[in-house]
Amino acid sequence: MVKTIVWKDNQVVMIDQRKLPMRERYVVCKDYRSVIRAIKGLVIRGAPAIGVAAAMGVALGALKIRTTGMDHFKTRFDAICREMVAARPTAANLSWAVERMKQVADEAIQRGVKWAKSRLVEEARKILEEDITINQTIGRYGQRLLKDGTRVLTHCNAGALATGGYGTALGVVRAAVEAGKRIEVFADETRPFLQGARLTAWELKASGIPVTVITDNAAGYFMQQRKVDAVIVGADRIAANGDVAKKIGTYMVAVLARTHKIPFYVAAPMSTIDVSIKSGKEILIEQRDEKEVTHFQGRRTAPNGVAAGNPSFDVTPHRYVSAIITEKGIMIPPFKAKIRKVFTSG
Ligand code: MRU
Fold first, then answer.
1. By the 8 A CB rule, do 89 and 39 touch?
2. 69 C-alpha vs ligand 1 centroid, how far in Å?
3. How far apart are CA 29 and CA 56, in angstroms?
4. Is 216 a catalytic residue?
5. How far apart are CA 140 and CA 29, in angstroms?
6. What are the backbone angles phi and psi of residue 128, rounded to the nearest 5°?
7. Which residue's alpha carbon is at the smallest distance from atom 6 of ligand 1?
8. Cβ atoms of residues 88 and 38 within 8 Å
9. How far apart are CA 250 and CA 219, in angstroms?
10. Which of 61, 222, 263, 272 makes an SS bond possible with 32, Cβ 3.0 to 4.6 Å?
């Protein structure tokens, strides 16, 4: 399976997701600022993957701090963490990962700067490894929801490329296939960055899982034709009441799924759940450059001077969600008490 991101010789190497599937090219980040640029520019994207990148980015930043003074190190490290968190605002995993790295730094610094640096590198690599295992666990739980022959519709890319590996929504698909079930996938192309057409299709094809790319506006048609049995998506931030922020267009898919009585499943690690916010209303939606909408591959497709709106995510209210699958198991509505319980039971 593809390696989305690796730590190699004190550098962060990531597959360039802007270029796939046409070119398989890797970007090498030698300092934390180039990791920030890669996250902002969508070289690496997907909530868990940018969490891993952020952890590796701040570890890279820590390595370059030239001091033996503990206080100076901590001041510099905290500043790097603040810059990293600001790279993209919607995915919970990014700030979750940076917070975890800050805790490691706080503890490790008692034993000196050198020790803190090596602990930070170790922790970033651990976050990557853990993410893969978590996705496999999500897959094992989630695949129980899919019968042999299920035709799944997914939006954006919640696969190996959006995570440390294996994937969340696509991890559920992979696990079902590994369990011997025949699964077909409809991949919404996902304008404007085409995560579905380019990335989901690419990785499913590579894994030998049948995939059909459809335009975003064809999802309703295929549901109406009774060609879709289940929708599975990942998530970028889940509020305490189960509202789900996810790639723009997901809300539309959820409403359509409800109309057609098709289950709408969300697969995500616990690190995507943000219990500090009561509902999706509190989620900050990233607004990206208008050019992503008015241009295609560098060429203008809309008239000169016309305005464009480019929210990168939307919020699907919890009432449209049939189940949330995490590494702790499957939660069905009502979510609020179950989410609280899963957090308090550790
Ligand atoms: O803008 P992106 O590509 O980072 O948006 C990503 C998504 O919406 C993903 O599907 C989501 O992060 C879940 S990833 C397992």
1. no
2. 39
3. 10
4. no
5. 34
6. -65, -50
7. 46
8. no
9. 11
10. 61
- Distance (angstroms) between ligand 1 centre and the Cα of 168 equals 10
**Mutation choice for ligand 1 from 161, 188, 236, 312, CB with most ligand atoms inside 8 A:** 236
For residue 12, the 8-state DSSP code is E
Amino acid at the residue 5: I
- What was the pLDDT predicted at 297? 82
Query: Which is the closest atom of ligand 1 to the Cα of 236?
Result: 12
Could you report the per-residue pLDDT of 188-212, keeping only the tens digit for each? 999 999 999 999 999 999 999 999 9
**Cα 43 to Cα 122: distance, rounded to the nearest angstrom:** 23
Ligand 1 atom at shortest distance from the alpha carbon of 246: 8
Half-sphere exposure (Cβ direction) of 305: Cα atoms closer than 13 Å: 0
Residue of 96, 246, 285, 287 with the most ligand 1 atoms within 8 Å of its CB, for mutation: 246
pTM of the predicted structure, to 2 decimals: 0.97
Residue nearest to atom 5 of ligand 1 (CA): 46
Q: Which of 131, 188, 216, 236 is catalytic?
A: 236
Give the integer Cα–Cα distance in Å for 89 and 285.
7
Residues with CB under 6 Å of ligand 1 are 45-48, 91, 156-158, 162-163, 168, 195, 234-236, 246-247, 312
Distance between first and last Cα of the chain:
31
Sign of CA dihedral 250, 134, 176, 147: negative
pLDDT tens for 287-330 read 999 999 999 988 999 999 999 999 999 999 999 999 999 999 99
* CB atoms closer than 10 angstroms to residue 45: 26
Has residue 346 got a pLDDT over 70? Answer: no
Taking the C-alpha atoms of 96, 130, 1 and 35 in order, what is their torsion angle to the nearest 10 degrees?
40
Query: What spacing in Å lies between the alpha carbon of 111 and ligand 1's midpoint?
Result: 38
